Amino acid sequence: MNLNMSGKRALVSGGLSTLGRAVVHTLATEGVEILFTYRSEGKAEEARELCRSISQSYDVYCNAVCLDFLSASSISAALSEVAAIFPTLDILIHNAGVFTLNTQSSLTEKQWDEVMDVNIKGFWRLIKGVDPLLKSPHGAVVAVSSINAERPGFGLTAHYDASKGAVSAYIRSLAAEFSPRKIRVNGVAPGLLYRENLIQENPSLVDTYVQRSLTSSLVDVQSVSSMVVYLASSAASAITGEIVTIDGGYSLT
Fold first, then answer.
1. CB-based contacts of 195, cutoff 8 Å, min separation 6
2. Is 3 inside any structural domain?
3. Residue range of the domain that includes 65
4. Residues 6+ apart with CB under 8 A from 4
5. Are 111 and 159 in contact (CB under 8 A)?
6. Position 4 in a domain
7. Which residue from 6, 7, 56, 166 has the highest number of Cβ atoms inside 10 Å of its Cβ?
8. Residue 55: which of 92, 85, 79, 27 has the closest Cα?
């Protein structure tokens, strides 16, 4: 995209997810130095491999930190490590999240708490910890919400929809609160992303989405990652408090 981002520093949460990986790669193509988080120590080698691939392919700095949003001590330790590596941040991208399917009658309190703790409380904890590092002026925050925040309808996702509704509200509130410091806060609201495991595990959900989508398809991950990186760039300097829908027209039907 050639967004003139070379040398900027970004922290990406959930860097090993399908979308997280795409965001990391897209940032790297723009010359951004990257630090991403991953949830468990069992993924440490996978994280190191992604860092090696990014550094070799794009000749940019890339590192990873283990951060479990369900653990206050993990978050505290990870954020201390982040500050030691990147004393200042140009960009924060909050992508980490939990998506599960449950009827409300079968959903347990533990399952509800996990979704809320990762999707919205985790976002709050991350902002609180990273806030002192964000550059002012010209810092940028981009968070991943969902079309379910504005228009629920997949079915079996009321708990997830509630968490993403909170994420969208938080994005807009932060944009207003951070505006005196000239830090922009935006979000993206993707529809159902194309992932092989999703197609295999939830074919009925995929069929429902594809039939309603104006493009008759799931959402291409690269479309979302490109928008995330654009919103984080100076090319979007006049955009704040916005949540961009990327759903192939699903929400219009």
1. 18, 221
2. no
3. 9-247
4. 233, 234, 235
5. yes
6. no
7. 166
8. 27
For residue range 124-182, list pLDDT tens digits in order.
Answer: 999 999 999 999 999 999 999 999 998 876 778 999 999 999 999 999 999 999 999 99
Residue 253 domain-assigned (yes or no)? no
- Whether this prediction's pTM lies above 0.70 is answered by yes
Residue 252 lies in a domain: no
For residue 236, what are the contacts with CB-CB under 8 A and spacing of at least 6? 140, 184, 186, 230
- CA end-to-end span of the chain: 31
46-79 pLDDT, tens digit each:
999 999 999 999 999 999 999 999 998 999 999 9
The number of domains in the chain is: 1
Domain harbouring 120, CATH code? 3.40.50.720
Three-state SS at 54:
helix
What order of strands is seen across the sheet that includes strand 243-246? Answer: 62-66, 33-38, 9-13, 91-94, 140-144, 184-190, 243-246
Short-list 250, 249, 246, CA closest to 144: 246
Amino acid, res. 70: L
